[in-house]
Amino acid sequence: MNRRNFLSSSIALSAASTLLPAWAQELDPYYTGFREGLKKQPTLGAFANVSADVACASARIEGKLPAALRGVLYRNGPAQFERGGVRHHHWFEGDGMVQAYRFTDEGVNHIGKFVRTKKFRAEEKAGRLGYSVFGGKVKDPLPVTGPDSMNAANTNVFAVNNAVYALWEGGSAYELDPVTLNTKGPKAWAPDWAGMPFSAHPKVTPDGHVWNIGGGWNG
Predict the structure, then answer these.
(1) CA 131 vs CA 44, 53, 121, 138, 202: distances in Å
(2) Among candidates 200, 140, 135, which has minimal Cα distance to 166?
(3) What is the pTM of this model?
(4) How far apart are CA 24 and CA 3, in angstroms?
(5) Low-confidence ranges of the chain (pLDDT < 70)
(6) Nearest to 76 by CA among 167, 148, 162, 151
(7) With b meaning 16 or more CB within 10 Å and e meaning fewer, what string describes 24-45?
(8) In 3D, which of 144, 48, 59 has the Cα closest to residue 97?
(9) Where are the beta strands (DSSP E) in 50-124?
C-alpha cells in the first residue's frame, strides 16, 4: 500500500469510528470480520444486515405459474444483525423479518417487515444492540424484565384464523396484520398467560386449533 492510500484508509477508518457511540469506538471484530469474510465468500450475503422493511410490487418470474397456485406464503427469519457498528455473534440473534409472497393472477408481489417487538423498539430507540439473545454478549445491556425483553421473533411464522404470528422459542407469539404485516403486539392466549413463552413450533390442526407448550416466568 502506498503512503497516499494508507493515509486515505486511516482517515476513513478514523471518521467511521468517530461516528459510533463512545462505547463502540473500538470497532467490533465481528462487525469488521464479517465484511472481510464477505469479500472472500459472497454466499455470506445471506447473512448481510437488513436495516429497513422491503417491498417488491412485482417479482420476476421465469416460466409460468400453475393456475392453481394462488394464495400467500409467509416466511420468517433473522434479518437485522447489527446496530451502531456492532454485530451479533450468532445469526440466531438477528431481529425477525416476516416475508409475505402473494400469488395472484397478475403474478407475485412481496413485502417484508420487521416484527416490532419490545426488543426491536428498545434497541431502535437506543441506536445500538442492547440484548444478548442466543450466546453473544453486548456491552452495557438494557434492562431485562421478562422473556419478551429479548424476544427476537425470528424463528417461525404461522397463519391461523385470519391472523399471522411471528414466533421465537422463549417469548410471546407476536401477532401481525395478515395483509400489511404491521405488528399488532404480543398475543396473550388467556388473561393469565400474558408474557408466557410460546414455543416456535406449534401444531395447527385443519379445523384451526393450535397445540403448543410454554413455560412460566418467575423473574
Answers:
(1) 24, 21, 12, 6, 26
(2) 200
(3) 0.83
(4) 28
(5) 1-27, 135, 215-219
(6) 167
(7) beeebeebeebeeeeeeeeeee
(8) 48
(9) 54-56, 71-80, 82-83, 86-87, 95-104, 107-114
Amino acid at 155: T
pLDDT tens for each residue of 97-107: 999 999 999 89
What does the block give as the cell for 124? 431502535
What distance in Å separates the CA atoms of residue 67 and residue 159, rounded to the nearest whole number?
23
8 A C-beta contact, residue 141 and residue 130: yes
Length of the chain: 219
CA angle, 146 then 152 then 154, to 5°: 140
Residue with cell 397478475: 106
The three cell numbers locating residue 48 = 448481510
